[in-house]
Amino acid sequence: MQLWHQPLTENAMRRGLRVSLGASFGFVFCKFFELDFGVFFVVTPILLLGAVAKINANIVRQSLAAAVVSGLEVGLLAAIFSSHPLLMTMLAFLLFVYKFACMSGGSLFLFGSTGVLNLSIMLHFASYSSADLNGMIAVNIWANVVALLIALALVHVIPDRPVSPKPAAAPAAPVPKPGHRRRHEALLGATVATLSFVVFQVFNLNDSLSAQATTLLLLFPLHWNGALSYARKRVMGVTLGVTFGVASQLLLYNWSDQLLLVSLLLWIGLLMFSYVHAKEGGVPGLGFGGLTTLGILFGQYLSPNQDIIFSALYRVSSIVVAVIITLFVCYLVHRILNRFEATRFGY
């Protein structure tokens, strides 16, 4: 498995610096104001600055729309259908279908992918009586606004250097995906995402956010081969991210309440994984897996009264199990959908 297949250009280094600083600023913001669901404030800048090639008005609209629409969906489902789990699950499946359809189309990929994560995670936590539904929705929207402001500021302060264009042949016109493939991708993603939601509900897994996010991130390639390829790199990235988290906890010891020290260590870890992410060409792989792992560990689980070492070891085991089960289910759904001409992936 080849990881280092892209030269590290000056612009790639600038992009990695933007990712590490953006997530660190989000972390400092949520911890300074003592906001819940810090994972939203750390992971959202990573998605915006690490998974999007260029931030423009379209990206801003998609990010804000995903947060607002997901908030409305979760609010309505949890408020009206919380006492009817079967009906709520069926409606969640339909919502996942249209979000994965947006991802399959390409132009609305950020709206669909962010919406899938927001819907699944918030809907899961909203099912618990102790959850503050309105507060969670408000924090998610606020995190997206803060992440956008941070991203826009960093793009302005640390812009890409202009690159002299190289003579090249005219790019070929993009070929639209055939309808049967788009249906395959939408149904595959929606089915596995819904099953993931059901499993986490049935087994009451309210402390496995990283595993739940992993089951969704594996679906972002939108097909079985892509999920299998990304899964191997994801496990490697998670393992390295958890190792850094454990090392940080040991180094901090009783100083985990010192925001400056924690933020500095987080920034160092994010910078290292941003370097790997840049070497991989900016596509989801080992570096991106490490980035999101650090975002979840530091944003959600690191606090003066909580031991990140136990949390980190639990994250590794839960993620490995989640990857294995998700790949197995993804393969089964892929084979079933390929049996029908209307939902076949390819010919």
TrEMBL record:
For this protein, the parts annotated as crossing the membrane are 75-96, 108-127, 139-158, 186-203, 209-228, 235-253, 259-276, 283-302, 308-334
Q: Which UniProt keywords apply?
A: Membrane, Transmembrane, Transmembrane helix
Taxonomically, the superkingdom here is Bacteria
Kindly give the Pfam families that the UniProt entry links to this protein: DUF2955
Residues in a coiled coil are none
For this entry, the protein name equals 1,4-alpha-glucan-branching protein
